[in-house]
Specification:
This protein has 17 helices and 22 strands. The protein has helices at residues 13-29, 37-45, 59-66, 115-127, 148-159, 173-185, 188-193, 211-223, 243-264, 291-306, 325-340, 360-378, 389-392, 405-414, 432-437, 443-455, 465-479; strands at 32-34, 49-51, 54-56, 73-76, 82-86, 92-94, 101-103, 110-112, 134-135, 164-167, 197-201, 208-209, 227-231, 234-235, 270-274, 277-278, 312-314, 345-347, 351-352, 357-359, 420-421, 424-425. The protein is an alpha/beta fold. The chain has a single domain, classed as Trimethylamine methyltransferase-like (TIM Barrel).
Length: 480
């Protein structure tokens, strides 16, 4: 029995209530800009007043609709096995998306990515035990622009069996992506029964839902596919400089998305997520590794839990340009705080440079960080009482307690054992002499070796040949 689950909170219940009330007031009085005509029609059918594209969503409509949003979302892998439960304080990790560069594994140079890079990336993710979900994480340049959304999903399905976090940059992409998912599940009903993917939807701060993003929410709702809201207020630029003001704006933008989704179809699965940041006043950048960015994320997650919704945050990222010490401490702090906050889906392993770059070396390191975070939140376990007395009475100085039955029985449960690939580990616990004998490598060097080894391994669950052929047919037809 776990004695207690370690947690962190930054908002009291009183302030959650205040933020929620003010966010509803903002939507009712200041309104939200809706670019999508279908969403406008849905709002007008409910009698929502507007001034041009700005709609003033009343408090009672929010209260009426928010009860329909499910408090739990389950995700299943390509083979139909349940692997993720987005509910309560369960935590899961995915690589995030969508980087426009990749750090070359051989040269270390940051460059534009190719589809071959994404295939390698997918196969590595498939073997990382602490990343339960994959993502369409890298935008590559060797397919036509109008194919990039669905082509990433296509390659993800072929090369990794895990559930996929994805999204669209073109409204026309959704139907093709839905076809790929339904084909994998064999029918639309089975896709609803066993969701395989989540579609990100990013409102535009402050207080605007674009045509593309809104259409994605509507299409996903009507297809039974979960939408993950990724509100991105930028404190001091596109949101108030105060952290509490930024959280309040995030809440308002996400509530507007909730209304749209539930008007499109009641009981639509949504995830209360985000990728906020503070604005760096010196460099004009959006630091994802800043402690204040992490604080906003924690508070956003608390608001999602207050509303009894599954939660998400971008919190294993670094603003460093290479996988160095900065990448380690920013990524590690973010992952740890996200885990303590009980964030259901934590995005960002592998990401560098303000979400613009994927690094396979950092991805391997972040998998190790995720494993350690998962061990922490398991907490201290009480097996029986007395806790130590009966064990200590058997102590023999000549053999210590190494061979005691409880040591042999429980050490694999009590101790986190680093991820091991052909005797390679990120975490080095050798003696100095052993380390010298084994090559005096750094964590980054060991990460590179592991990445190379994993990229050469076959997929854990090879895709069915018939399914591969059908997916290939869809891809080839649309590429023509």
């Amino acid at each position: 029995m776990t004695i207690m689950r370690p947690k962190i909170e930054l908002l009291t219940n009183e302030y959650k209530e205040k933020i929620f009330h003010e966010a509803k007031t903002i939507l009712q009085i200041q309104g939200v800009v809706i670019e999508n005509s279908e969403a406008r029609d849905l709002l007008q059918e409910e009698g929502v007043e507007n001034e041009g594209p700005r709609y003033f969503i009343p408090d009672d409509l929010i209260e009426k609709l928010r009860v329909y949003a499910p408090s739990e979302i389950k995700l299943f892998d390509r083979e139909g096995k349940e692997v993720i439960q987005l509910t309560q304080d369960n935590i899961h990790f995915d690589p995030g998306s969508a980087a426009i560069f990749i750090q070359d594994l051989n040269s270390g140079v940051i460059r534009e990515a190719l589809s071959s890079d994404y295939i390698k990336f997918s196969r590595i993710v498939d073997h990382l035990p602490y990343l339960e979900a994959h993502s369409t994480a890298i935008v590559y340049t060797d397919v036509p622009n109008d194919a990039q959304d669905w082509h990433r999903l296509y390659l993800a399905l072929l090369n990794c069996s895990k559930p996929i976090i994805t999204g669209t940059f073109r409204t026309e992409s959704f139907a093709i992506m839905r076809d790929l998912l339904e084909l994998t599940r064999t029918s639309s009903d089975k896709l609803v029964e066993k969701p395989l993917a989540i579609f990100d939807a990013c409102p535009s701060p402050p207080l605007m839902w674009s045509n593309l993003t809104t259409q994605s929410v509507i299409d996903a709702a009507r297809s039974g596919i979960p939408s993950e809201f990724v509100s991105m207020p930028l404190a001091g630029s596109t949101a108030p400089i105060t952290l509490v003001g930024c959280v309040t704006q995030h809440t308002a933008e996400s509530l507007a998305g909730l209304v749209i989704a539930q008007l499109a179809k009641k009981n639509s699965p949504i995830i209360w997520g985000g990728s906020p940041a503070v604005f760096d006043m010196k460099n004009g950048t959006t630091p994802m590794g800043a402690i204040e960015t992490m604080m906003i994320n924690i508070a956003d997650v608390q608001m999602g839990k207050f509303l009894k919704l599954p939660t998400h945050a971008y919190m294993t990222l670094s603003d460093s340009k290479v996988p160095d010490a900065q990448a380690g401490f920013e990524g590690g702090m973010g992952a740890l705080l996200a885990g303590l906050a009980g964030t259901n889906m934590i995005s960002g392993p592998g990401m560098l440079d303000f979400e613009s770059t994927q690094s396979l070396e950092k991805l391997i390191i972040d998998n190790e960080i995720a494993g350690m975070v998962k061990r922490l939140i398991q907490g201290i376990v009480s097996y029986d009482e007395p806790f130590a007395q009966n064990i200590l009475k058997d102590y023999d100085p000549s053999v210590s307690l190494l061979s005691h039955p409880t040591t042999l029985q429980l050490f694999k449960k009590e101790l986190y054992l680093p991820f091991n690939v052909d005797n390679y580990q990120i975490i080095n616990r050798e003696t100095r002499d052993q380390w010298k004998t084994s090559g005096e490598t750094s964590a980054r060097q060991r990460a590179r070796e592991i990445a190379v080894k994993l990229s050469e391994r076959p997929v854990r669950e090879p895709i069915d040949d018939n399914l591969r052929k059908e997916l290939d047919n869809i891809a080839n037809n649309h590429l023509k």
